[in-house]
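chain and backbone:
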Amino acid sequence: MMSAKILVVDDSASDRFIIERMLREYDILTACDGIGAMQQIDDHDDIDIVILDLNMPKMDGFEVLEALKSNDRYKGLRTIILTNYDELDNEIEGLRLGAVDYIRKPVNMDSLKARIEIHVELLRIQQLLEQKLYEQGLTFETIFQQAPIGIAISHGSEPSNSKNAVTRFNPMFEQITGRTKDELMELGWAKITYPDDLDKDLANFKKLQSGELSSYSMEKRYVKPDGSIVWVQMTVAPLVISNDSRYNHICLAQEITRRKEMEADLLESERSKSVLLSHLPGLAYRCKCDVQWTMEYVSAGCSKLTGYPPESLISNKDLAFDDLVAPEYRESLWREREKAIAKRMPLNYEYQIITAEGERKWVLEMGEGVFTETGEVEGLEGIIIDITSRKRSEDELKYASEHDRWTDLYNLSYLEGVLKRDSKNRKASRRALISVNLSNMQLVTATYGFHYSQELTRNVAESLSRYCTDSLLLSYAYENLFVFYLRNHEGKASLNEISEAIAHTLTSLFEVERIGVGVGVVEINRDNDSDVDQLMKRLLITSEKAINVNERNVGIRFYDEEIEMQITRELEIDRELSRIAVSEDDGGLFLQYQPILCLKSNLIRCFEALSRLRTDKLGLVPPLEFIPVAEKTKLIIPIGRKVMNQAFRFLNELKKNGFSDIGVSINVSAVQLLRSDFVDDLFKMISEARVSPENICLEITESVFASNYEEINRTLGKLKDNGIHIAIDDFGTGYSSLAMEQELNVNCLKIDKSFVDGLMHLRAEDTITCDIISMAHKLGHYVTAEGVEHEEQRQYLLSCGCDEIQGYLVARPLDKEAAIEFLKIHNHQ
């Protein structure tokens, strides 16, 4: 590259700065007005190119051109005009006064640089030719033939050549146009010029011939024989050769097709960037690395993002961008920027800004440092986009992930996270968990409906929230289980005080429903805080044990050694049931059978199969202890199948002994009934055991309907339609009514023992047992009374029309062999 000295004459400091930066490989001088320009030219004889703004203070740009043209000393200068004028007359006037190029603002830097390089190349060629002519005495012909640019010399006065015209083309001109000299002579330059460029070229050519222009320069296109286009930077000027006056003008053509393609690509890139920036939810920037990160460029998106116009931030005119950063983020943003610059790594940081309207917005800044070739930092470039909507969505998702949708309280996941963090950090000295167990809420749902119970749950949440403080956090951990997490409590007395206050609140809330509520308390210490799952399990069990403690509507229970032993016992029961569930035999699971007596015939009509469990460690385990464990762990499914198979085998034993009309009653839980394959699986077992469905009765409690009333009632309907009897066990202890029973697919009501016990203490006219029996008969159900232990109870029930009785008066639960012997004796009397 040739070293050239360039004078930039422009009153815009920003334009001069940009041109100097883009052309820094050349020797650049600057002047801000025409007088200064002339002074610089006078002081520097070696100036090669002048880049001149037509809009000059003190001395107009045309005056500078006039001064340069009038002095032979400056004829070697190549003058390029920069202007905002679009009028063709101004361009023509500039070219007439000796300018070799004409560029409109705003300046396209790549285009300007490419044009400068062409003029520098022309200077280089000119200097090279002069040097060669001087040193080697080269002839004009040699230069003409070997020049690296296209040259056409013509004496003709028309753009179309004629036989009388004398025109010459050097080999490079033929190469550029893709035509031979004969073809060029035949066609003339007008016919191979691209139509859109022809009018301008003709206008300049006529003014050149008339003397209005001393030369002209323009970018134009030639059409090659194959129809393709070639771009050239063309300069046309008079040619005076003393020894050959036949030629009156010369055309120099430098191919710039590749440059024009690059310019087109650049324009498209700039268009794409402009579209991108116009749709960017924020702004693009370039800033210095000074204390305030002074902005040098800010895109138009600044107005929408910040409420301030871009120019107010440039050079900190009205305020610095850092003034917009929320105070709590300024120091951290400064550190992140410095770190990105120091490590030459991308900046990616989220923070908040405060807009002109005082609104807070979340933004994401992504940028990179700009460095010189020597590694010195020049600034930081990047984009700042509005992420307020995203942050709002993130906050909403975070809130949803940490809170229960119905109560708006923290959920189990959040509570467990807090417990784990506090366990790790050891921040609180004394900690405890207090749970509120509303497991009996399902009875409210069965009685009053889902929406009523949900609204009641929400009222509980609202009431309990009033106890929350900085040290007392409330969460809705499971369905119907609230958990308080207390930090830095003062001891057991304070825990009891809080629990009593909670119990008082709950008592007033459930005054109408009168369901049992349990408040469980577990103290956290270093021995148990690491296992959150175990803590929650202890809390749940403690709150369950608290329900109906001391016959209170809201019981309070602290976790202690007794509960620890119960948990250990429950684990052992769970292990035993798990072994039985997967074993081929029944292990320690067996049945006993309690006779059910028909009062009218005084004969045994049926036996209730009662599950029993015996383990090596615990001995005989009551059903009320192991059945809830089986239901909770879903082991009731395989255990229930084993119970049914044992009961069906008992039916076959009865048949072998001549009692084919005696039935067996089996207890079934909601967990079993809600399985989609329960009905099919049951009838498969009945078929394999070869027993009659009419000899089978399934007993369910009223509470099972709280799980899924419609689905369970539909299942019972299928069983009843196929001959199986359905009985509601412990009737009267739940929340169902006789009116509700009319809709149920059942055959029998079993009156709970508590009603039968009352017959011994109340007058006959004061009990409702007879009313229950009468209403059940009207609904088409037969009635079995449970827990009958005295003859007086039997006589009363007989007088009320009760169908069957069951209890110690008839017989205690019996093993299989004893039950058959009892039947033989009783029914053959």
